[in-house]
Design brief:
Layout lengths: L3 H11 L17 H16 L5 E3 L4 E5 L29 E5 L7 H6 L1 H7 L1 E7 L7 H16 L4 H7 L3 E6 L1 H15 L8 E5 L10 H9 L17 H13 L3 H12 L11 H21 L2 H19 L10 E6 L7 H11 L3 E6 L13 H6 L8 H4 L14 H19 L4 E3 L5 E3 L11 E5 L10 E5 L7 H5 L3 E2 L2 H9 L3 E4 L3 H5 L15 H8 L3 E7 L2 H4 L2 E3 L1 H4 L6 H9 L19 E2 L4 E3 L20
Parallel strand pairs: 3-4, 3-5, 5-6, 6-7, 7-8, 11-14, 11-15, 12-13, 12-14
Antiparallel strand pairs: 1-2, 2-4, 9-10, 15-18, 16-17
Protein name: AB hydrolase-1 domain-containing protein
Organism: Phaeodactylum tricornutum (strain CCAP 1055/1)
InterPro entries: AB_hydrolase_1, AB_hydrolase_fold
Length: about 625
Amino acid sequence: MWAPFHKLLPVFLASSSSSTTKSASWTPPKTPQDLTNAFRQVYRELEQPGSKFVYATETLRFSYVHPPVNGTKAWNTGAFPAPSTAESADAKPLAIYIPGLDGYGISASTHQFDDLAQSFELWRMTMMPKDRSSFAVVVNAIHDFVETQLSPDSHEENIKNKRRVILIGESCGGVFASAAALKLQSKSRTSPLDGLVLVNPATSFDRTAWEVLVPLLASLKNLDPDETGENDVVTPYAVIGSLILSGLLPDEDQTKRIRDNILNLESLRSPGINLATLAQLQEAAASSFRMTADFLPPELLEHRVSRWLTVGNAVIQSRLKDITVPTLVVVGSDDKLMPSASEADRLLKILPNSEKLVVRNRGHLVLDENVNLTEAILFSKIDLLRWNETKKPYDVITDWKLPSLEKIEKAVEETVDPLRRFHSPVYFSTDDKGKRWMGLSKVPKVDGPLLFVGNHQLGRTPGIIRSVDNRFAFANADFQSFGALPVTPRNYYRLMQTGQSALLFPGGAAEAQSGRRDYPLFWPEKTDFVRTAARFNATIIPFSAIGMVDSVNVLVESEDIFKLPFIGERAKALSRNVTAARYDTKKEDEVLLPPIGLSKQTILTTKINKIAIEYTEKRSPQCV
């Protein structure tokens, strides 16, 4: 936020990263002084207004950030929908970045501006070192700029076209962004903002000691040597302030990378430390210290803390609950400058439409190359691309796709093959003439839906079949990924309506848990599923098998489990909490608990094709 090491950090990190901010002529720094010079170059670029800018006051400016000419490698913006022919590039969502106390946002500019400028019309606010504006003046400047950009000609036209706009406030900028959002919201029933992004916001300032420490730090200016007219004087304020803040701003990983980059400088890799090297280090350190006094002198620091943070938090804290726009709070979990992680939790309780993104192991300089702010915004509640309005909700009937071949092979290898090896099933199918054949080759291939009706023993069929199952099946997520659906009349009806093949067990759970008794086909008294199949001209394929009675030794019947001490009551409760498998069956009518037992032969009978009934006749299905 303040120290020169904060401003130098992007240069340190960029020296070993693939940041797209590097120009074609950029060369890695070789000496400590090169690092300082590289920073000064970045600072000079940010001081420039650019080709398109708006001055709010003589010392407050908004500059347009041009997208990189050759695109950006950090974020594949091609993944997002291109503007329609009716929407020009100028109509991209508007994003306004508001920096922290340094007034420039140098860390965000190094790693975030390229990506943001690709997806948004990005404007960055600049607060110059000479600026002594009050909190209200800065907020008004942001408010007026937003309103001008939203409706430069006609407010009615803006409402019609609804320009999308967000404010991005980092650190102290988060306080300004919150206040501006409240001011914009107060002007109309509906806020013109589409979203608010708060990055390590200084809304937690009143829970820090900075309000006391900063005046003490600023008072070090009284220890400065007499003016000599020389620019190379290193003041106590510059040294102490730089050392304190450089220890608080970077996180551990950033500190390590800074140290490694310095030690790997070409001029420092030579064996031995000579006087020339020591002189280089001394001059680079002095130059870095001087930058604190140059870019954030003590009187400016004191002004911005007392007039911006102290006043600003007093203004907005009681009104934060009134911010209704979708808000994304981005914080580093290890912020040592402010309690940002706990502040995110507090803001989520206060802001009615907010969410948080906590970046693990990151400090106050959270917007480094490990975070993509563009991605975070686009996939948040803010929804600037209107995905939630335009995307079709997922339909389990029509939108389901067969899993990938890799997933199918894995399921067969891990689940199906072990069962086949253990039970050694033999399959038979029956043709139209009633002749039985080994295998399932006679399962009909017809246009229209197929309805497989059986008794829980079908093991292998051609084609894609959607199973309509009891809720027990959904304890395993693989059932859903392979197309299984909860057993409801609506799901079954829509499968038939859309021409898909379905597998149905009319007998329900009771049929699968018949225990030692004969294995009957428990069809319900009402056979509406047959009428539905007839309505959509489905081919019904009954299937059956030698039942579990013949292949499993049942040790304890389901009803007997309920009588067991200790576990009986728990088993009853489990059975009562399961939805009835059949449409016309109440919970208490079915025993939904399998017996305790210690392989399987499927037979497909003659198909029932072109059902000769009228599906509108209520009594017809009873005779099938």
